[in-house]
């Protein structure tokens, strides 16, 4: 590549301020790590997994985890997601006649069904036939189920666990299936546009200034009203979510027209200020699914940070790192739950890598890339005078194998390198057990 001037260096200053704030607000703490890793006595019988918390850092490859480690934890530090005692890798290739690299739909469908399929498919096979999903199977086995995401709640990754469509774009149909078929108990995230008919905005106005293309567009009627009739407590703001005490444990929260951020290149309207952050949604989902200890059959919760993928598509390293920070806080919340509920399996992984992200030395004499893919940085290494640069090779997905870390009963099964369908092999043994 020709040498070019990298992106403006004031970004590093901005992120330094964010890092300072993270020191105060980060959920991660030595106490959490210590309590979650407390050893069991040799005589103590290991519990079987009753609950599963499955966390997807959408688009998070190994280099994204390393960049976040340097930025959030420092040269000798560890992310909470990397403190989980079991580590392995997952390959991500789809079974698509036209593609080698997966999209989120095919990847999540592999997790949810155990079968590889084509890009764009939501838990249907290569011939379009519906496949049984973990979300539906867990419900049939008596477990409570939930999904939390900063994307639309009907976006590809959560949809694959709770619906079946030949096209990931059928988000209003996916919402309908949530209510009529799979019936997850907790649904928290963005995507209000798909739950309401065209011309009938809800809590979030059509054509907002930050993105005039967003507007209500559902074709299945008023699904928010339908959800309320089916017993869901509906919320659309942080205070409502905090106060919500659904008597029957059914909770629907929609906190944005579409994704809970604006995924654009740096300085071009990029915004990451969700109405409710991922950690807060995760904590509320766990509290609701747990039912104050009254849920005896366990639960399945899928948690997703979408911002890593979307901002990496835009080669926006500043917001990619911010998304990693938010994901790390949500993982810390999940790990706190595991520390006091040893019958819970926690898995943290990614559906694929996005951007071809690389962590490089901050060397102004070795700059590469052009346009959107110009190098980003420098970014500070926490508790250090050092800094690093983030470089990009693409604005699309790559086929890099992604890390998987796990803790709790059956976690050891994630040792080694496996196809992404192996997630289904492990989780189905837990979630389909009656």
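-> sequence recovered:
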């Amino acid at each position: 590549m020709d040498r070019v001037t990298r992106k403006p260096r004031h970004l590093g200053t901005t992120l330094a301020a964010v890092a300072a704030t993270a020191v105060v607000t980060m959920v991660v703490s030595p106490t959490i790590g210590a309590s979650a890793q407390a050893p069991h006595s040799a005589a103590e019988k290991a519990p079987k997994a009753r609950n599963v918390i499955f966390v997807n850092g959408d688009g998070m490859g190994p280099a994204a985890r390393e960049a976040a480690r340097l930025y959030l934890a420092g040269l000798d530090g560890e992310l909470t997601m990397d403190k989980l005692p079991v580590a392995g890798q997952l390959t991500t290739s789809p079974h698509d006649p036209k593609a080698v690299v997966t999209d989120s739909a095919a990847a999540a469908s592999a997790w949810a069904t155990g079968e590889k399929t084509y890009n764009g498919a939501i838990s249907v096979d290569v011939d379009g036939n519906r496949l049984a999903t973990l979300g539906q199977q867990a419900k049939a086995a008596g477990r409570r189920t939930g999904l939390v995401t900063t994307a639309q709640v009907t976006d590809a990754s959560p949809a694959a666990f709770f619906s079946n469509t030949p096209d990931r774009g059928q988000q209003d149909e996916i919402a309908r299936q949530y209510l009529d078929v799979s019936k997850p108990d907790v649904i928290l995230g963005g995507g209000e546009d798909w739950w309401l008919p065209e011309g009938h905005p809800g809590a979030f106005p059509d054509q907002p200034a930050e993105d005039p293309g967003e507007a209500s567009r559902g074709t299945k009627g008023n699904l928010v009203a339908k959800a309320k009739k089916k017993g869901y407590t509906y919320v659309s703001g942080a205070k409502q979510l905090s106060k919500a005490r659904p008597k029957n444990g059914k909770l629907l929260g929609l906190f944005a027209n579409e994704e809970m951020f604006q995924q654009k290149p740096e300085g071009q309207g990029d915004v990451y200020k969700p109405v409710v952050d991922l950690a807060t949604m995760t904590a509320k989902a766990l509290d609701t699914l747990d039912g104050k200890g009254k849920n005896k059959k366990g639960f399945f919760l899928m948690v997703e940070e979408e911002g890593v993928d979307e901002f990496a598509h835009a080669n926006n390293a500043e917001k990619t790192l911010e998304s990693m920070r938010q994901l790390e806080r949500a993982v810390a919340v999940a790990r706190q739950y595991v520390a006091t509920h040893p019958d819970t399996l926690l898995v943290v992984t990614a559906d694929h890598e996005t951007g071809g992200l690389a962590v490089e030395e901050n060397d102004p004499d070795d700059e590469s890339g052009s346009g959107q893919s110009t190098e980003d940085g420098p970014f500070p290494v926490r508790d250090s005078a050092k800094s690093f640069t983030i470089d990009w090779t693409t604005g699309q997905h790559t086929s890099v194998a992604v890390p998987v870390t796990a803790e709790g009963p059956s976690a050891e099964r994630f040792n080694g390198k496996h196809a992404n369908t192996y997630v289904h092999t492990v989780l189905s043994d837990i979630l389909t057990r009656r």
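Residues 207 and 214 are 5 Å apart (CA to CA).
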